[in-house]
Amino acid sequence: MAEQNITSNGTTVSTLCKRCCTSPSVINLRTEHLCSDCFDKYIRSKCIKRMEAYRVRYNPPDTDTSPRRLLLPLSFGISSTTLLHLLNSQLQNQLARTTRTGFVLVVVHIDESAIDPTVPPGEKSMRAVQERFPHVGEYLVVKLEGIYEFPSAVKAFEMGVGGSGGGDWEEKLKDLLGALPSSTSRMDVLHILRTRLITGLARKHACEAVLWGDTTTRLAEKTLAETAKGRGFSIPWQTSDGDSPYGLKFLYPLRDLLKKELAVYISLDAPTPLRPLCSGAAEEGEGKKKYAAVGKGITIDELMTQYFEGIEGQYPSIVANVVRTAGKLVTEGGVVRIGRCKICGLPRDGGGGELVLGAGAKSGETSGGGGKEGGDMCYGCARSVYGARPYEWPL
């Protein structure tokens, strides 16, 4: 898969790597051609740099603390699978040098087959991953409806659906999504549920941080999507390394890499290629065709994914600039925080009350805001539930 150039006489020659100047290149990395070995070093260095806080401390073992626990959400897509591979390599290198590791992983896959029958259960894929990386830590497969195990994370979604009572969690989840007014709202709430379940699991398993597999491309998508959905105030927490309002650190070790670079990386003819582990890679590759066909039904998140995946090849600097600009935002400042949003759990921006959710409600019905025009929600979440069928938010 070496890159080739066509000469004036019609013959083709392989482009040499600009770093080692001996091997043929496999990728034109923004400004230079790299061979597979140099490209591998480049990818690893970007991840290790972001994990510097979790290197092994060179102090005597008897005074060393136990390895810190980190949770890694695994979707079996290109990004999260690559991140697991890189962290496994880092752990093996730490063991080889010091016989100790600076951290252990809790690898979690969220099974969403209850709401999407086309999604295969994750147990089989997780077993394959565990056989490949047996020494990184624990492996868990958790159903999305398991969010109901964490009352503090789900109480906002216990809607008063008649007859449901304390019934089946799967039916409760389907009722919740069915009450929402649009595909964008459903995708937004699904993302919130997934995030809150992951953070609940991280606290339950005594993890101090969540390692997200978001690339530069994904962070750029998230920046514009959340802004368009009215949740721009949350961008510093959703795109920056550091403390989150959930009582955990959020870290993005792949934040300096483009998604297209990882797509090339998993395709390298290494002794043990990663692509067979990426059961979600095919779906990601078919995204553009699916989004183009949907047209009017496309969600904001899908639109942003389509846009940035389309431009990252020719204009990677635009993608990187979006993320750099978002990184300059801070959580302190002129926005007044009034408690927490009961939906997303983030500190409220105070804007939800400006949206009159009860405008179309019938007499005697409570608006989706729980009684007073969305005052207990942030503006983004108030927009997501605006127009939902009548129900009552719990107080």
Question: How would you describe this structure to a colleague?
Answer:
The protein is of the alpha/beta class and 395 residues long. The chain has two domains: 39-331, 3-Layer(aba) Sandwich (Rossmann fold); 336-395, no CATH class. The protein has helices spanning 36-50, 78-98, 123-132, 151-154, 169-179, 183-204, 216-228, 235-239, 259-265, 281-285, 287-294, 300-311, 316-327, 379-385, and strands at residues 4-6, 12-14, 27-29, 32-34, 68-73, 103-111, 137-143, 209-211, 242-243, 249-251. The chain has a six-stranded mixed β-sheet, sandwiched between helices. A two-stranded antiparallel sheet has the order 1-2. It has a two-stranded antiparallel ribbon with strand order 3-4. Helix 6 (183-204) packs across helix 14 (379-385), helix 7 packs antiparallel against helix 12 and helix 7 crosses helix 13. The longest helix is centred in the middle third of the chain and has 22 residues, at 183-204. The radius of gyration is 23 Å and the shape is globular. It starts with a strand and ends in a 10-residue tail after the last helix. The relative contact order is 0.12. Mean pLDDT is 80; it is low at 4-13, 159-167, 282-289, 356-373 and 391-395. Belongs to the CTU2/NCS2 family. One of its GO terms (molecular function) is nucleotidyltransferase activity.
